[in-house]
Write a structure and sequence with these properties.
Radius of gyration: 27 Å
CATH superfamily: TonB-dependent receptor, beta-barrel domain
Strand content: over 45%
CATH architecture: Beta Barrel
Number of domains: 1
């Protein structure tokens, strides 16, 4: 009955869209049938491209206050983000394809035709996405749905997000824009475009934003708030017409972000599931009570020096030579660097030494201690990577223009610029953790875990794609790409186990043990994962792995009229495997995943008494060798091969991707735009998504392993971050005022998604909900948000624009991520969504 109801609802909504509703994100004065996109890496009308696409121009991004990837996903049905590490460390999920920590993207992000720079880190996502400072001075943002593995390459199984910057023009023009808002938000943007000569054009831009965090710290330790904003972004682009047939386009960008970071909010506790006999859960309940007394947007911090820093820069050169009317040669080369530094509590808790503390020499009762905090390496970074890309491409046509083709070669080399990783503390009171000046709280469990790595990636690809016009109405498209990937990983993992008592006046100097079962001996250093392949005392390991795979597309387009496009296609997508060295050795290397996608679609435009567009597509994905993240926690019941008990080993809990089997994903996407009457535009977009894990390989660890698997996935489970229903409805009305007054418009956007699984914890253990007092640790409820904007362009016919905006107008309290920890740890943490945000924006335009 549930399945039938869902299908009925999806059909009802689709029917409603047919009768009332844009590809969302269109300018109030622009018909979506006129929009030009580069989804196939050449300029085409949106309505002529046989791909399901959502397009946002810069005005729409500004009206909706889109400043990061999380904002973009809120307005794009079928697009979601993982937000467990804050809005600046999000990764995209599209049509059910999720990027887990440590994996390659499932949705490729491209800026100015170049893939986002890599940012591999140990435990935190970085790079590979649309970070701060990326959403200003853009021509548009294009969200391409479905595998794009021929023209864009591997790691686009879910789709691609294209950020297209404004290109320098022949006009002397620009703008200065200032915004203020609640939470002491200040933002300034400035752009100037100048023709330096008849053949040289320059464009410079800057974007700076500060905003207080909306998560208030209740402890008084460290920053007053979290999830704040503080970044500056600079961009410069230069176009040189070397000859009438050769254009050289260079764009350079720089972003620096320095804020307090993100902390998960402890939201529930299950004492019966606490492996430390309630030590964590009962204290977590106290943290929750203190947060609740202060309000929903409250968080607990026990780290005095919490922060999150990111810096990146990138240079791209795109040179195009129009050889003749039928052939063009293009070369795109880029170089980028990205580093991050993170200091953050892992669970958002503040714990104190209890009255029944273990052993002599433990700090006094009620002394605060860190349960688990993550610190970047004392002399290193959380991530630090340099990425070089080179692409050579031929673009041409023949057969009197009936054949349009592209072919090229791609090379990417991403190298580490130093050690990356973390030095985390567990059950310790530390005055100088970088130098091991700490006091033990639970002997044998109190530890510092040192994890360092260097990761090198190389990718090479050859591709070709062509579209042939069989008749004036029929076109056939075929494309093929072959990709070779190689990853090399160096890792070092050391656990420093603290004895019963070490004075907090001098650094702890542990001894080294080669005995893998000696992890609980007081004052012992051991290799974290107890691997015989790691060589103590260094505990280092070097691994490498190569992958390769073909991808392709076969499609047919049919245009019965100029206003209707029908298409069908079959595509193969490929996401590379990799190495994640901070999980059990059995799962260090995970293999590539592949998907076969079958899609049928229709795009229509109509122009008469009623103008608008209506687009719809249906798709089916056959997903194989899927990479799904599993959790690994300390094994407190270790046994040897004879069933004799072994002492537990102090190891940090972790999570990593594992190839678990097969899934199927099918769905429907529809979007429409209607100019109902003069000045009024109604837009709507809807996605129905049905996901199911079809088969799962046995994922187990031996009884002697220091880890156990927590919250495994099973056949029949849905995929996480894949709501069945997601919808956006927008209305914009431009008032019929005299031109001397200016253009005044009022807009409203309603977004809705149905409930979705955040993790797999409750699917295997439904009793967790009861154990946590009713909090569902695995599922997020449905959510509806309302955003409003008022725009007054050309105020009194002058150069000023004025705008007022508000997001989450009804101030909904909701979570964007739940981490699924309660089943193995006895406490649950989650990420709270933004509260009501509002502000005023003033823009001064100059030039033509």
């Amino acid at each position: 009955m549930m399945r039938k109801s869902s299908i009925k609802l999806s059909l009802a909504v689709t029917t409603a869209l047919c009768s009332v509703s844009p590809a969302i994100a269109q300018d109030a004065g622009i018909n979506s049938s006129d929009i030009v996109v580069t989804a196939r890496r050449i300029e085409e009308r949106l309505q002529d491209v046989p791909i399901s696409i959502t397009v946002f121009n810069q005005e729409e991004l500004a009206n909706r206050n889109v400043t990061n990837a999380q904002d973009l996903a809120a307005y794009t049905p079928s697009l979601s983000v993982t937000t467990g590490f804050g809005s600046e460390n999000t990764t995209f999920a599209l049509r059910g394809f999720v990027q887990e920590t440590g994996t390659a993207p499932s949705v490729g992000v491209y800026f100015a035709d170049v893939v986002a720079p890599r940012g591999p880190s140990q435990g935190f996502p970085a790079g590979d996405g649309a970070g701060p400072g990326m959403f200003f001075d853009l021509q548009n943002v294009q969200v391409l749905k479905g595998p794009q593995g021929t023209l864009f390459g591997r790691n686009t199984t879910g789709g691609a997000v294209l950020l297209v910057p404004q290109k320098p023009t022949d006009n002397l023009e620009g703008y200065i824009e200032g915004s203020i808002g609640n939470y002491d938000m200040h933002r300034i943007q400035a752009v100037v475009n100048a023709p330096l000569s008849d053949n040289i054009r320059l464009r410079l831009g800057a974007d700076w934003q500060e905003r207080d965090g909306f998560m208030e710290n209740v402890t008084g330790i460290g920053p007053d708030d979290f999830d704040d904003i503080n970044y500056i972004a600079l961009r410069g682009s230069l176009v040189v017409d070397v000859t009438p047939d050769i254009e050289n386009y260079t764009i350079a960008s720089f972003v620096d972000s320095d804020n307090n970071g993100h902390i998960a909010k402890v939201v529930a506790a299950a004492p019966s599931r606490d492996p430390f006999g309630g030590l964590l859960a009962f204290q977590a309940l106290g943290n929750i009570a203190r947060q609740d007394a202060n309000g929903f947007h409250s968080v607990t911090n026990d780290m005095p020096d919490a922060y999150q820093k990111m810096r990146s820069w990138q240079v791209i050169n795109n040179t195009r030579w129009q050889v003749n009317d039928n052939l063009a040669v293009r070369n795109i080369v880029s170089y980028a660097q990205l580093w991050t530094k993170t200091h953050t509590p892992l669970f958002g808790t503040q714990f104190f030494v209890p009255a029944d503390a273990f052993g002599p020499g433990v700090p006094a009762v009620a002394t605060p201690f860190n349960f688990a905090v993550i610190r970047h390496l004392p002399d290193g970074h959380s991530s630090n990577q340099a990425t070089f890309t080179e692409e050579f491409r031929l673009e041409g046509n023949s057969a009197d223009g009936r054949l349009i083709y592209q072919t090229g070669a791609y090379y990417e080399n991403s190298t580490p610029r130093g050690l990356i990783g973390s030095q985390s503390t567990t059950f310790l009171q530390c005055s100088d953790p970088d130098n091991f000046v700490c006091t033990s709280v639970i002997p044998g469990a109190s530890a510092i875990n040192y994890t360092a790595a260097k990761n090198k990636f190389r990718s090479t690809g050859l591709y070709a794609q062509a579209t042939y016009e069989l008749t004036d109405q029929f076109k056939v498209t075929g494309g093929f790409r072959y990709t070779w990937d190689k990853v090399r990983s160096f890792s070092q993992r050391i656990t420093y186990v603290f004895p019963a008592f070490v004075p907090d006046a001098s650094p702890f100097l542990p001894v080294v043990s080669l005995d893998p079962n000696d992890g609980t001996t007081a004052g012992v250093t051991h290799c974290t994962d107890q691997l015989p392949v790691r060589m103590a005392p260094d505990c280092t390991l070097t691994e490498s792995k190569s992958f390769s795979a073909p991808t392709w597309v076969l499609g047919l387009d049919y245009k019965p009229t100029e206003q209707i496009l029908l298409y069908g296609k079959y595509t193969r997508g490929y996401r590379t495997g990799s190495i994640k060295s901070d999980v059990p050795i059995e799962f260090h290397i995970f293999e590539p995943e592949k998907v076969d996608t079958f899609e049928l679609g229709m795009k229509t435009s109509f122009d008469g008494a009623l103008r608008g567009t209506f687009n719809i597509s249906g798709f089916y994905n056959d997903f194989q060798n899927q990479q799904i993240q599993l959790g690994f926690t300390q094994n407190f019941n270790r046994q040897d091969s004879q069933g004799n008990p072994l002492p537990p080993v102090s190891v940090p809990g972790n999570a990593g991707p594992v190839n678990v089997g097969k899934s199927r994903i099918w769905g429907i996407e529809a979007d429409t735009q209607l100019h109902l009457f003069e000045g009024f535009i109604l837009s709507a977009a809807y996605t129905y998504l049905n996901t199911k894990v079809k088969a799962v390989e046995n994922v187990t660890l031996g009884p002697d392993n220091v880890y156990v698997v927590s919250a495994p996935v099973a056949a029949g489970d849905p995929l996480i971050l894949s709501p069945k229903h997601k919808m956006t409805i927008s209305a914009n009305y431009t008032l019929p005022l005299d031109e001397s007054i200016g253009d005044v418009s009022i807009g409203a956007t309603l977004t809705h998604r149905s409930s979705q699984y955040a993790n797999y914890s409750t699917l295997r253990n439904p009793s967790i909900v009861q154990d946590t007092g009713g909090f569902n640790t695995g599922r997020m409820p449905k959510l509806t948000l309302l955003n409003l904007n008022l725009n007054w362009d050309s105020v009194a016919g002058g150069p000023f624009d004025l705008a007022v905006f508000a997001t989450n107008v009804t101030d909904k309290k909701y979570f964007t991520a739940i981490n699924g920890l309660a089943s193995g740890l006895g406490i649950e943490t989650a990420t709270a969504g933004e509260p009501r945000m509002f502000g005023v924006r003033v823009k001064f335009n100059f030039g033509q």
